[in-house]
């Protein structure tokens, strides 16, 4: 069969798709990857054929566009909260999940995020591609709903492949329940309205599968997944970190306990927001009896006066190669970094920022006993971080629980084992073109 992967032009989002794309190719299926032009080099570096769709994402410009759309969408609300509240997809406090909050959330998310990443030109290109190439299955990034529209336009089966916790699926169920409890004339659904209008341009109509897929492929272990009623299939996370040459120092076992400090690819410069600065992080780790490998670039090191003697700084090293030698990892809570740590059974110290699903992930990992996060409000001090890292290193329960989660990950179907499942689901869901 023919399989089209649709991804946002962000390397971490694409990296999650690579192992499954290669599993399908190895099984004899044709595979292509569609994304904005910014990602073409990363796609081809993974040995996969790339097709550009839409204008470049231009992430720096997209941040400004996001703010502009956010402000414009807020104007539609009677009493808009602050900017962070407008996009708090991770909100789970019952007293905050009011109809007004849910309406405002989907108004802003639709205008500022979903429409931005599925611009008309991008969706036009995706539909033209699927109608020309006729894929049997489209696997799409949660943030690229143009993938579901394009699949519908050509009759292909389609599924989401998650990058992170399924906050959209959970919040969508809450919003639909809220809408169903209201009189029909008060059931305004901005996400459905936009998708219905967009799908109608290609002769289709709205269905909830345009939001959450005909099914969802999820690499998060079941014990760390938020509950939803959506159909989903698990897949083992297989780390892919892009092209890399392993440094010579990594070929030898460490002389003492090793700690990884990483800001991740997605949020290198916003780790922890106001939680901790890079100098504070290095100060905290510099006093430990351990070797610290810190993945910091020149811009981040510019604010550091002196790098402690026990800290080795590198611009990049693949976590899949580094983490097997580590006793702990300190990071911002991003999906790719957390998944790498789970795969290798490494206890985690999470210094989360307030982006997307990072706080709920940090809470779930702490609850599992495989990691810790700062408690209380205010900036994290070097002493506070040092205490968290020391606790994770010295209390055996963290290593035991991290090893338990590693075994849970290993028990999930590998990408190769998922291929026949996808073949069966595709045959069941594919319609005539």
Report on the biggest sheet.
7 strands, parallel
**DSSP E strands, number:** 13
- Count, helices: 18
Distance N terminus to C terminus?
14 Å
In the CATH hierarchy, what is the architecture of the largest domain at level 2? 3-Layer(aba) Sandwich
User: Mind telling me the CATH superfamily name of the largest domain?
Assistant: Glycogen Phosphorylase B
Strand content: 5-15%
The domain tally reads 2
Radius of gyration: 22 Å
- Under CATH, the topology of the largest domain can be stated as Rossmann fold
Mean of pLDDT = 89
Biggest sheet: strands side by side, in what order?
3-2-1-4-5-6-7
Per CATH, the class of the largest domain reads Alpha Beta
Shape verdict? globular
**Structural class label:** alpha/beta
Low-confidence stretches: 266-274
Organism: Streptomyces litmocidini
InterPro entries: EryCIII-like_C, EryCIII-like_N, Glycosyl_450act, Glycosyltransferase_28, UDP_glucos_trans
Keywords: Antibiotic biosynthesis, Glycosyltransferase, Transferase
Pfam families: EryCIII-like_C (PF06722), EryCIII-like_N (PF21036)
